[in-house]
C-alpha cells in the first residue's frame, strides 16, 4: 500500500487535506479508488526523476504565486483525454450534455466526503473536496456536489487532475480549465464560473496542506456561544472578549453620571474594546467604528444629551471629531483624547514634511486644473497647509475611489494628486488600470459617468505621493502575502485599502470571484456579516473562513457582531477569522520574562521584544499608537471630568486647535474646509460650488 503525506490538521491521525471521520479505519486504497477507478490514473512523466512531494512543492511555490494561464495543457494524460472529449462537442448544447454525463462518474462518491471541513466556500451549490498526496508525489482528488451541473464540473476536475503530480496540480489555473474546456459564459453563468475557480483554489490549497502540514497563521473560530483561539497570538487577542464585569460597571456608572459619549476606533486594544462593547449594552452613547463614523456618531451623542465626548484613537481622529462637532454647532462640547502626549500615526506624520508640500506645490505649478485628495488620516495642520497649496478635499478608505472618479467627471482635464498613503495611491492606480481593460458594467458599478476608455484617459493625470505608509498595513509584505496565497486561496479575503500592492492585487482577484473585499474597516465588517447572512440563507452546514488583512484589533467588533448575528439567525454556522501575522510580530517568552501577569501563561505575545505589535521589518500586527488608549487612561479621564481640576489636569488631553494664521484664517479653520467639502460630497453626491470654483480659479482664497 502506498504511503500518504500528512494533512494540514490539528489531528495527527489524518492523512488527507480535509476531514475524514475515523481516518485510521479507512478502507484500503484499492477499495477507496474503486468508485473512481475509471478516473484516477497512476501517471508519471517519462523524463521526470522520482521526487518527494515536499521538494516538488518548494520548487513550484514561487511559480504558482505568479501563475498565469498556460498556452497549452501540461503533460497530464488524463487531463488531455478529458479536453479531447470536450473538443468533440461542437455545440453549446453538446457541452452542457457532456457536463451532465460527467456527473455520473461521481455517483458513488464516498459519503464521508460530505462533511463541513471538506466544503468549498463561495459556491452556489454545496461542494466538497478532499486531496491526498502519496509518498510518490501522486495527487488523489475527491470532489462532489449536491447539484448535477456542479457535480459534473467536479468530475471534470477529478478526472483531469487525479493521478497528476503535486507540481502539475499547482501549475493549473482556473482560467486554464475554463479556456481548455471552452466553458465560457454560454456554458457557465458567472456564479458557476466563480464556483469552479474556488474549487480549484481549494484543491491547490489542500494539496499544499497535505504536504506541508498545518495552516501557518493563528485564528479565532466564532460560533453562537463560543470563541476558540488557535495559536498563541490568537489567544492573546481573545483574552478580553469576555471583559471584567466590575470594570464594566464602573465605566458605565461614570459615563452615565457625567453624560459622556465615547467614540473609539476598531483598532483599540482588545481589553478596551471588550469593556466598551459590554458597556454599550447599558449605555447607548458608545461607538466603535472607523474614523469617519466616529465623528458622525459624536454629533448624535451631543444632540441626544451628552456634554462631553471622549475619543479613543490617534490624534487626527480627535481633531476630526472636534472639527465636525464645531461645524455642527457644538463648539462648546468638550472633547478629550486619552493621553497628554501626542498619540501619533506614521501615515499622518508622512504628510508633515516639506517633501509632501513640494509634491503639491510642484503639481499645482505644472497643472492648469488640479485637486488634492487627502486621506482623512492626517492632521488638521496638514489639511490646512495643503489647502493653501492646492484645492483640497478629504477622503476616507471607503469613499476615496468615488471621490477621485467624481473629480474627473466634474472637471474635464483635471489632475488629481492623492496622498499621503503610498500603498493606497498605488492600489487606486492599479484598480483603474485593471478596470480600463475590463467591462463597462464593472466600471459603472463604481461610477456611472465613467467607462474603460475614460479610465485610460485619466490615468496619466492621476498622481500619488510615494513616501507614506501606515506601519500596520506595511506588515502585509511579500512573505505574508505568499503564505496567504498558498494556504488560504480558498478562504474569503478581507483587506484594507492601505495594504501593499501584492495583498491588494490578491484581494482584488478574490473579489472578482466573490471571495474578497477591499475597503475600509467598516467595509470589511459588513462583508463578513453579509457572507454569514448568505451562508445562512443557503442552509448549508458551513464553516466560513476569513483572512483579516488589517489591524487585528478589529477582532473584538467582528466577534461581537458575528455572535449577535448568529444568535439572531439561530444559526449553527462557524466563522473562523485568520490573522495573517508575520512571525516577527510575535515574541516567544522565556519562563522568567518580565511581562504583565495577564500574559504570563502565554508562550508568546504580540510584538517583538520592546515594541508592542511591531515587526523588525517595519510592520505591525497591532498599532502601538492606538494602544496608548488604555482602559486605565479612560477611567482616569472619566474620574477627572466635572471636577475642579478638570481644566488644568485634562487641558493637555484636548485635540490641537492650530491657531496660527494662514491666508487670513487660522490653520484650524483652513483644515476644516477640506472636511466640509467631503461631507458635502457625501450628502449631495456632487462637489460643492465653492470647491469647483477653487479648482477653476486655482487660487488659494478658499484656504
Helix and strand arrangement:
Elements: H1 29-34, H2 53-65, H3 77-87, H4 92-103, E1 127-133, E2 139-145, H5 148-161, H6 166-171, H7 174-180, H8 190-212, E3 219-222, E4 227-230, H9 232-238, H10 245-258, E5 260-265, H11 270-279, E6 286-289, H12 291-303, E7 308-312, H13 315-327, E8 334-336, H14 346-350, H15 354-366, E9 370-375, H16 380-389, E10 392-395, H17 400-410, E11 415-419, H18 422-435, H19 440-446, H20 452-458, E12 462-464, H21 478-488, E13 492-496, H22 501-512, E14 516-519, H23 521-538, E15 543-549, H24 555-569, E16 574-578, E17 586-588, E18 604-606, H25 631-640, H26 646-650, E19 661-662, E20 665-666, H27 667-684, H28 689-697
Parallel strand pairs: 5-6, 5-7, 7-8, 9-10, 9-11, 11-12, 13-14, 13-15, 15-16
Antiparallel strand pairs: 1-2, 3-4, 3-16, 17-18, 19-20
Helix pairs in contact: 3-5, 4-5, 5-8, 8-21, 10-11, 11-24, 12-13, 13-27, 16-27, 18-22, 23-24
Give a written overview of the molecule.
Helix content is 45%, strand content 13%. The protein is globular. The longest helix has 23 residues, at 190-212. Strand 3 and strand 4 (227-230) form a beta hairpin. By secondary structure, the protein is α/β, with parallel strands linked by helices. The strands form 6 sheets. A 6-stranded mixed sheet has the order 4-3-16-15-13-14, with helices on both faces. Strands 6-5-7-8 form a 4-stranded parallel sheet, with helices on both faces.
Quick tags:
6-stranded mixed beta sheet; 13% strand; 703 residues; alpha/beta; 4-stranded parallel beta sheet; 20 strands
Amino acid at each position: 500500500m502506498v504511503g500518504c503525506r500528512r494533512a494540514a490538521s490539528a489531528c495527527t491521525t489524518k492523512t488527507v487535506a480535509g476531514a475524514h471521520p475515523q481516518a485510521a479505519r479507512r478502507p484500503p486504497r484499492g477499495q477507496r479508488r474503486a468508485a473512481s477507478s475509471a478516473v484516477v490514473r497512476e501517471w508519471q512523466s517519462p523524463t521526470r526523476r522520482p521526487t518527494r512531494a515536499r521538494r516538488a512543492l518548494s520548487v513550484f511555490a514561487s511559480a504558482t504565486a505568479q501563475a498565469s494561464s498556460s498556452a497549452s495543457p501540461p503533460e497530464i494524460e488524463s487531463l488531455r483525454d478529458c479536453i479531447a472529449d470536450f473538443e468533440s462537442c461542437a455545440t453549446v448544447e453538446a457541452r452542457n450534455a457532456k457536463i451532465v454525463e460527467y456527473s455520473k462518474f461521481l455517483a458513488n462518491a464516498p459519503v464521508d466526503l460530505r462533511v463541513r471541513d471538506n466544503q468549498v466556500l463561495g459556491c452556489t451549490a454545496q461542494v466538497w473536496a478532499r486531496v491526498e498526496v502519496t509518498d510518490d508525489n501522486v495527487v488523489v482528488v475527491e470532489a462532489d456536489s449536491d447539484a448535477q451541473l456542479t457535480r459534473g464540473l467536479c468530475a471534470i476536475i477529478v478526472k483531469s487532475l487525479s493521478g497528476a503530480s503535486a507540481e502539475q496540480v499547482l501549475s493549473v489555473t482556473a482560467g486554464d480549465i475554463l479556456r481548455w474546456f471552452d466553458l465560457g459564459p454560454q456554458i457557465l453563468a458567472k456564479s458557476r464560473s466563480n464556483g469552479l475557480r474556488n474549487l480549484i483554489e481549494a484543491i491547490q490549497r489542500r494539496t499544499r496542506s497535505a504536504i506541508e502540514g498545518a495552516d501557518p497563521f493563528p485564528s479565532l473560530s466564532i460560533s453562537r456561544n463560543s470563541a476558540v483561539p488557535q495559536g498563541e497570538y490568537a489567544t492573546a487577542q481573545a483574552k478580553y472578549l469576555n471583559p471584567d464585569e466590575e470594570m464594566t460597571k464602573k465605566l458605565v456608572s461614570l459615563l452615565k453620571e457625567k453624560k459622556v459619549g465615547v467614540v473609539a476606533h476598531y483598532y483599540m486594544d482588545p481589553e478596551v474594546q471588550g469593556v466598551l462593547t459590554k458597556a454599550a449594552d447599558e449605555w447607548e452613547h458608545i461607538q466603535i467604528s472607523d474614523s469617519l463614523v466616529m465623528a458622525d456618531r459624536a454629533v448624535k451623542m451631543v444632540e441626544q444629551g451628552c456634554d462631553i465626548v471622549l475619543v479613543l484613537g490617534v490624534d487626527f481622529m480627535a481633531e476630526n471629531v472636534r472639527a465636525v462637532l464645531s461645524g455642527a454647532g457644538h463648539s462648546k462640547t468638550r472633547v478629550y483624547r486619552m493621553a497628554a502626549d501626542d498619540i501619533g500615526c506614521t501615515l499622518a506624520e508622512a504628510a508633515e514634511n516639506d517633501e509632501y508640500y513640494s509634491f503639491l506645490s510642484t503639481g499645482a505649478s505644472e497643472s492648469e486644473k488640479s485637486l488634492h485628495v487627502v486621506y482623512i488620516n492626517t492632521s488638521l495642520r496638514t489639511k490646512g497647509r495643503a489647502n493653501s497649496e492646492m484645492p483640497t478635499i478629504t477622503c476616507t478608505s471607503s469613499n476615496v475611489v468615488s471621490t477621485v472618479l467624481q473629480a474627473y467627471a466634474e472637471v474635464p482635464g483635471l489632475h488629481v494628486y492623492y496622498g499621503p498613503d503610498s500603498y493606497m495611491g498605488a492600489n487606486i492606480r492599479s484598480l483603474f488600470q485593471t478596470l480600463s481593460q475590463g467591462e463597462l458594467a464593472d466600471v459603472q458599478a463604481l461610477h456611472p459617468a465613467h467607462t474603460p476608455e475614460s479610465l485610460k484617459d485619466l490615468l496619466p493625470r492621476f498622481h500619488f505621493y510615494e513616501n507614506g505608509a501606515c506601519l500596520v498595513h506595511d506588515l502585509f509584505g511579500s512573505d505574508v502575502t505568499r503564505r496567504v496565497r498558498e494556504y488560504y486561496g480558498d478562504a474569503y479575503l478581507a483587506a484594507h485599502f492601505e495594504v501593499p500592492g501584492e495583498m491588494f492585487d490578491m484581494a482584488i482577484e478574490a473579489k472578482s470571484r466573490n471571495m474578497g473585499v477591499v475597503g475600509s474597516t467598516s467595509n470589511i465588517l459588513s462583508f463578513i456579516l453579509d457572507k454569514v447572512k448568505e451562508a445562512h440563507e443557503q442552509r448549508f452546514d458551513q464553516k466560513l473562513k476569513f483572512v483579516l488583512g488589517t489591524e487585528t484589533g478589529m477582532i473584538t467588533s467582528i466577534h461581537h457582531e458575528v455572535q449577535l448575528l448568529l444568535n439572531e439567525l439561530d444559526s449553527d454556522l462557524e466563522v473562523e477569522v485568520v490573522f495573517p501575522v508575520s512571525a516577527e510580530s510575535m515574541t516567544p517568552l522565556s519562563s522568567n520574562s518580565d511581562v504583565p501577569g495577564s500574559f504570563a501563561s502565554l508562550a508568546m505575545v504580540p510584538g517583538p521584544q520592546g515594541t508592542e505589535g511591531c515587526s523588525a521589518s517595519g510592520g505591525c500586527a497591532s498599532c502601538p499608537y492606538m494602544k496608548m488608549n488604555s482602559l486605565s487612561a479612560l477611567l482616569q479621564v472619566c474620574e477627572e471630568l466635572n471636577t475642579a481640576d478638570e481644566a488644568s489636569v485634562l487641558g493637555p488631553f484636548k485635540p490641537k486647535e492650530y491657531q496660527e494664521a494662514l491666508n487670513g484664517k487660522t490653520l484650524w479653520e483652513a483644515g476644516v474646509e477640506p472636511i466640509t467639502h467631503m461631507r458635502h460630497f457625501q450628502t449631495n453626491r456632487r462637489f460643492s460650488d465653492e470647491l469647483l470654483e477653487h479648482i477653476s480659479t486655482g487660487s488659494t482664497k478658499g484656504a
